[in-house]
Amino acid sequence: xxxxxxxxxxxxxxxxxxxxxxxxxxxxxxxxxxxxxxxxxxxxxxxxxxxxxxxxxxxxxxxxxxxxxxxxxxxxxxxxxxxxxxxxxxxxxxxxxxxxxxxxxxxxxxxxxxxxxxxxxxxxxxxxxxxxxxxxxxxxxxxxxxxxxxxxxxxxxxxxxxxxxxxxxxxxxxxxxxxxxxxxxxxxxxxxxxxxxxxxxxxxxxxxxxxxxxxxxxx
Length: 219
What we know:
This is Helix-turn-helix transcriptional regulator. This protein has helices at residues 2-19, 29-41, 52-56, 71-83, 98-107, 119-130, 138-145, 151-154, 161-171, 176-183, 187-200, 206-216, and strands at 21-25, 45-48, 62-68, 88-93, 111-114.
């Protein structure tokens, strides 16, 4: 009997790994491999990918575990969530403040965890995501339910110093290509970052954003 139970459990894990694939994206190899080991131990098929947007945009259910550190990572998170809305994205936050959780969830992530989360926490969040649920810290739930317009609810809408610099350059007539060259991004990535900024500020395009920036005194 015990042998049969173990065999059944192994078959369940094998079926789970075959059905669901999980991609792990993190710039640090040691941490990336540690997350892959934890996910594999939980019975899922974990792997690395150099192009997470293309990897996620396939006609089968998949999970992406994506570390978010820089502005470009937020743009990637947005693109993965838009390009593969049927898949689950777990954001791994380098700075796990409630505002970062809220931003990740508003971008389309199904859950978020701190970058220093334990393997047990990662497995629990992953299991919940697979079951169509989300494990969210209490302070993040409070942030999500705050009335729109309060300072805490609007905190993540304030551009960073880099983003304000971009807006000032756009306002004086510089092109996106020029911004990209100065910032060290490709022109395509610069477009993504600006699009993310416009959306986060609740504006549809560059013109609306610059008018808003002028009204806020950022320019």
